[in-house]
Design brief:
The chain is about 75% helix and about 0% strand. It is mainly α. It has one domain: Glycerol uptake facilitator protein. Helix 1 crosses helix 3, helix 2 packs parallel to helix 8 and helix 3 packs parallel to helix 7. The two termini are about 30 Å apart.
């Protein structure tokens, strides 16, 4: 249970600070600031809870780790419960904070939810959204699995993973707002309204498929150094 609770806490940190910066200060810090908020939050969580759970804080990552043969099915499900709970709790806390000013309107300002199409960010179509989320998540999980394998330099995985998440956000914020994490997407969508909920399926499915694909590359030893 300690591992699952650690995943809840870590996912809470990621969603609260990543989405929080986007909602509260996005107009001030821009894409670069939001990208670093997600990456730095992940780095902080990695060193805070990594020794307990490995700091997946992402169902797609846990799926990739399971496919790679590095965790049990029971633990993966436990991680998922913690991750989704942490993301939902963080989205609710963020909403309560954001509502503390008259300048905030949920319908207008949103909650850092992901999306695509007309009216969202760069208005990229669903094909672009699918391709980005699949490949960005696959690359992200490849970095995670590679930097945490036995032959990788010890102590640097959190930095490598966090920096990769920054790069992914710099590339993809205008495409989908960047999910690469089903829990990060579901949490805000539950509070953001019907349109966000109608699109959240894409961010549940394709990051998961991308994570599984990365796990397969390590399961079959195509990328594994061990």
């Amino acid at each position: 249970m300690k591992k699952y609770f650690a995943e809840l806490v870590g996912t809470f940190i990621l969603v609260l600070f990543g989405c929080g910066v986007a909602v509260v200060a996005g107009d001030k810090v821009g894409i670069v600031g939001i990208a670093f908020a997600f990456g730095l939050a992940l780095i902080g969580a990695a060193y805070g809870i990594g020794p307990i759970s490995g700091c997946h804080i992402n169902p797609a990552v846990s799926l990739g780790v399971w496919v790679a043969g590095r965790m049990s099915l029971r633990d993966m499900i436990g991680y998922w419960v913690g991750q989704f709970a942490g993301a939902i709790l963080a989205a609710w806390v963020l909403l309560m904070i954001a509502m503390g000013t008259e300048g905030y309107n949920l319908a207008v300002n949103g909650l850092g939810q992901n999306g695509w199409g007309s009216g969202y960010q760069g208005e990229y179509n669903i094909q672009s959204a699918i391709l980005f989320e699949f490949f960005a998540t696959a690359i992200f999980v490849i970095v995670i699995l590679g930097s945490t394998q036995k032959s990788a330099p010890a102590g640097f995985a959190g930095l490598a993973i966090g920096i990769t998440l920054v790069a992914i956000h710099l590339f993809g914020i205008h495409i989908t707002g960047v999910s690469v994490n089903p829990a990060r997407s579901l949490g805000p969508a539950l509070f953001a309204g019907s349109h966000a909920l109608s699109q959240v399926w894409l961010f549940l499915v394709f990051p998961s498929v991308g994570g599984a694909a990365a796990g397969f590359l390590y399961r079959t030893k195509l990328l594994a150094a061990d």
